[in-house]
Design goal:
The chain is of the alpha+beta class. About 35% of the residues lie in helices and about 20% in strands. It has helices at about 15-25, 35-45, 100-105, 145-150, 155-170, 185-200, 210-220, 270-280, 295-300, 320-340, 340-360, 410-415; strands spanning about 5, 50-55, 60-70, 75, 90, 110-115, 125-135, 175, 225-235, 240-245, 250, 255-260, 285-290, 305-315. Strands 1, 2, 3, 4, 5, 6, 7, 11, 13 and 14 form a ten-stranded mixed beta sheet that branches. A hairpin with a 2-residue loop joins β9 and β10 (about 240-245). It is elongated. It starts with a strand and ends in a 12-residue tail after the last helix. About 50% of the residues are buried.
Length: about 425
């Protein structure tokens, strides 16, 4: 067993951060920016229980497990509810005894829900594995975005480009900025997203000051293994849609997307994701990890699937037993709803009704923290399905409703259900 030392993530020395980066570089499984020390440090500035276990072999740091711990010794992956990739980041060939690791961390249980598939020593504790759709990217050619779109998504290109031309005609010339540095645009995104959470009956993440501060801080981080990227679609000088998420050198992780609800007719969420994919590829990104969540629009855009696991790593302890008895039924209910559209869609409609009542003031004062098992139906057409199919049916670029666009109702049920019980609030994509 390796020697293990425990550190605050925001206090890691420069040599330890470099060793962590080296471990990321030596395996493509760990290239996701949510696995970078910069993300762990950002969480650590706001979460008192944040720690990093560093595994040493022959005096060299070879593995890093970021986690959060409460006073009872219950642990969870760092940023649980906000991150889409979790792992003990290590150099090739490094292994560990999970119970000894938990003991060194002072944990009786370690909960995770986006564990990367490579983590074999945690394998016995995985209770379920799930698809994390992804888009393989490559350098664009000199022909530009329109030709890239026609080649990558031929069934979508005609309608999407028509929407973009109509947007430009109605509101002013459309332009896309992949890496916008204006903090005012970030504030606009958070305002839109906060209103959307309330409107759709979800927990308002940006009602929590620490999450606002976290996003503002990560927006300023510009390192090789973690850069906060704000992307904006403009029509004239008017922002239409915005997204904020991290990227490493080779992996881009979509995070928060929102748009002006008055402009939903133009399918701004879909335009945003397609524009980001093309621009990220030109900027050297090779994988756009859309994150866990059973959404038709993800099926439509993905080129393949990664696998992530959820579960509870435990060692014999009464607290571990109690925690699993409490948390596992919640997860089971959530996963059952997510797996069955006949359950998922009514739950989503209920949340939207609650959100409507709340935003119109008919539920009394207070913003609430609407939680539950709803997700949007995400009824986008399959890749080669062509254009819109009518006002009441599944819609493509020609007329997606606000709840069905990428970044609107994504995996809220999955994320909201785990917001209870001390985890960071679940976020929607």
């Amino acid at each position: 067993m390796s020697t293990i030392t425990i550190h605050r993530p925001e206090e890691l020395s420069l040599p330890l951060r470099r060793a962590w980066h080296r471990a990321m570089d030596e395996s493509p499984d760990y290239a996701n920016p949510f696995l970078a020390p910069e993300f762990a440090a950002g969480i650590g500035r706001h979460r008192g229980g944040a720690r990093v276990a560093v595994l040493h072999e022959d005096g060299e740091a070879v593995g890093f497990l970021p986690y959060e711990r409460n006073a009872l010794g219950v642990g969870r992956a760092i940023g649980l509810g906000l991150s889409d990739a979790q792992a003990l980041v290590h150099r090739p060939g490094v292994t560990w005894d999970t119970r000894e690791l938990l003991r060194a961390c002072g944990l009786s249980v370690f909960e995770f829900d986006h564990l990367v598939e490579e983590q074999k020593p945690f394998g016995a504790y995985v209770t379920g594995t799930f698809a994390s759709p992804a888009i393989d990217l490559k350098d664009g050619d000199d022909a530009g975005y329109a030709e890239w779109l026609r080649g990558a998504y031929p069934g979508l290109a005609k309608t999407t480009l028509k929407k973009e031309r109509r947007l430009a005609r109605d509101l002013g010339e459309m332009r896309f900025v992949f890496d916008e540095r204006d903090p005012a645009a970030l504030r606009t995104l958070m305002r839109w997203k906060s209103a959307q959470y309330r409107r759709t009956g979800r927990m308002d993440r940006f009602a929590r000051p620490w999450i606002v501060e976290l996003v503002e801080q990560l927006f300023q981080v510009r390192e090789e293994h973690f850069t906060g990227v704000l992307s904006v679609v403009y029509a004239g000088d008017r922002p239409v849609a915005a997204h904020f998420g991290p990227r490493s050198r080779t992996v881009f992780a979509p995070w928060f997307t929102a748009y002006d609800p008055d402009l939903q007719y133009y399918s701004p969420g879909l335009i945003m994701h397609l524009r980001m994919a093309e621009a990220a590829g030109r900027d050297g990104v090779r994988l756009m990890d859309l994150g866990r969540g059973d959404k038709e629009w993800k099926d439509w855009l993905k080129t393949r699937e990664l696998r992530v696991g959820e579960g509870f790593a435990v060692r014999p302890h009464p607290v571990a037993t109690a925690h699993r008895l409490w948390r596992r039924p919640v997860r089971g209910l959530r996963n059952t709803v997510l797996a069955h559209p006949r359950l998922r869609e009514p739950a989503d409609r209920l949340l939207k009704t609650v959100g409507t009542l709340r935003t119109t003031g008919r539920m009394g004062s207070g913003t609430g923290t609407g939680s539950g098992a709803g997700t949007g139906s995400g009824a986008a057409p399959r890749r080669n399905a062509g254009g819109p199919r009518g006002e009441n049916g599944p819609r493509g670029a020609g007329g997606q409703g606000a709840a069905n666009q990428p970044g609107n109702a994504n995996a809220d049920s999955q994320r909201n259900a785990n917001a209870r019980g001390g985890a960071a609030p679940r976020r929607e994509r």
